[in-house]
Specification:
Blueprint lengths: L26 H4 L13 E5 L4 H13 L4 E6 L2 H11 L3 E5 L5 H9 L1 E2 L6 E2 L3 E4 L11 H8 L3 E4 L4 H8 L2 H7 L2 E3 L8 H16 L4 E11 L6 H10 L4 E5 L2 E5 L6 E4 L6 E6 L3 H10 L3 E9 L1 H13 L2 H4 L2 H22 L3 E9 L4 E8 L2 H17 L6 E3 L12 H8 L5 E3 L3
Parallel strand pairs: 1-2, 1-6, 2-3, 6-7, 7-8, 8-17, 9-14
Antiparallel strand pairs: 4-5, 9-15, 10-11, 12-13, 13-14, 15-16, 16-18
Helix pairs in contact: 2-14, 4-5, 8-15, 9-13, 14-15
């Protein structure tokens, strides 16, 4: 039963989880040699979308964080897969997988055929990084993981998909399998940052958390290519859901512009409302009555272009994956040219306001999104393999997903390479 015993090992708390000001961890501080429990030390991890920017970055981060892991790069392009395996080196291999084909998925998860040793080995954990998740009608990978009793984490950034994944909670409990949905950088690391701000406020303040705001900035597409571009276009077709004093409200996408200071290395940037899953999940899980999320990019004319698209194009067009893909193919060459000088810096700012006037902030900034998202996803993988996640399907801010005593370690690992990382300031 691949992955069935993953949740049994519990991570011993190294330090308290209240971080006043966290310094940027370096490779030597965190170490690129995570020592997993003996039961999961040589786990086989399948990274779906492993030939893409996000999945490839995740595979590389996993190999650096824990050299004992056996990494299977899953994708449809064998040539790209072979190149990625060459980059990863030993303990890695390629598996040709179609994430939309149940039989293909179950074959990749359940049995691995080693042509040299003639062995059959189950996959212990699968990372679903084959986006975009918008407009996907089924949680095919999660269902295949539960069928084959394989631990699971995805980098989903779509509200409908994440809620659909949560509907499999009881099935995962019955199968004794730990699973995390929205386990990337944002949502994902940002959810854990929010959970820590709320926890600290409730333990240190007499007031109650009243308002939680997520602000995100990425230069260009963050070097993440067509998938991020497709995700952005698809999100423009979704009505924004936010919460105001406990009531759900619906707003126009890419509206409500605010100028937000992301701190050193980033500065002030314009951000706009988007429909992101952490808004609903943190409202429900953390019990904060007012929650919203905004995103912005640069150069500034990309923001203008997104706002114009939202106003001029019908939502039905922006929700059509095939039409959006055609738009991506049209814009991709231009976007790549702009990315070449825009860079790919990424920053997250999470603000919490309490009833007693206490206001706290968490900021996470990295010079390369394509690297940072890999460490973010890898940090969730490590947490699952260390036993932080209970059987079921969980959001990152749920205690059953990432245990309170495991949050700081997760944030440290995810923050590797950041040039600005502060919590509870």
């Amino acid at each position: 039963m691949a992955g069935a015993s993953v949740h049994m090992q519990h991570l011993n708390s190294r330090v308290g989880v209240t971080m006043a000001t966290a310094t940027t961890p370096t490779d030597t501080q965190i170490g690129t040699r995570v020592q997993l429990p003996e039961k999961t030390r040589n786990s086989r991890v399948l990274v779906l979308g492993g030939t893409g920017r996000v999945g490839g970055s995740t595979a590389i981060a996993l190999s650096k964080l824990c050299s004992d892991l056996q990494i299977v790069v899953g994708g449809r392009n064998r040539e790209k897969g072979v190149n990625m395996v060459a980059t990863l080196g030993r303990n890695s291999e390629f598996s040709e997988v179609d994430v939309n084909n149940v039989k293909s998925l179950e074959a990749a998860l359940k049995v691995h055929n080693d042509s040299l040793r003639l062995l059959s080995v189950d996959v212990d954990l699968v990372v679903h990084a084959a986006g975009p998740f918008q407009q996907a009608e089924k949680c095919t990978v999660l269902e295949a993981a539960l069928e084959t009793k394989t631990a699971y984490v995805d980098v989903c950034d779509d509200t409908a998909y994440s809620q659909r994944a949560k509907s499999f909670k009881n099935s995962a409990i019955a199968a004794n399998i730990p699973a995390i949905t929205t386990g990337g950088i944002y949502p994902g690391v940002s959810n854990v940052m929010a959970a820590e701000l709320v926890r600290a406020a409730r333990s240190e303040s007499k007031g109650t958390p009243e308002r939680l705001r997520f602000y995100y900035y990425t230069a260009g597409t963050g070097g993440s290519g067509p998938t991020i571009l497709a995700t952005s276009f698809l999100l423009l077709g979704e009505e924004v859901v936010a919460f105001n004093k406990g009531e759900k409200i619906k707003l126009k996408p890419y509206s409500g512009m605010l100028e937000i200071d992301f701190g050193k290395g980033i500065g002030k940037k314009d951000v706009y409302l988007l429909n992101l899953p952490e808004v609903r999940s943190t409202h429900e899980v953390l019990g904060v009555p007012t929650v919203s999320a905004r995103f912005g990019t640069s150069p500034f004319f990309w923001n203008w272009g997104m706002a114009i698209m939202t106003s001029l194009l019908p939502p039905e067009l922006l929700r059509d994956r095939s039409k959006v893909q055609q738009m991506v193919e049209l814009f991709d060459p231009v976007v790549r040219q702009v990315d070449s000088f825009a860079g790919e810096r990424v920053s997250m700012r999470v603000d919490l306001e309490c009833s007693d006037g206490r206001n706290t902030v968490g900021i996470f900034s990295h010079k390369r999104l394509s690297v940072s998202v890999g460490y973010a996803a890898a940090a969730f993988v490590m947490a699952i393999l260390e036993g932080s996640t209970k059987p079921g399907v969980w959001f990152p801010e749920e205690n059953e997903g990432i245990a309170i005593e495991a949050r700081e370690l997760l944030l440290e690992r995810a923050a590797q390479g950041t040039f600005n990382f502060v919590m509870n300031k």
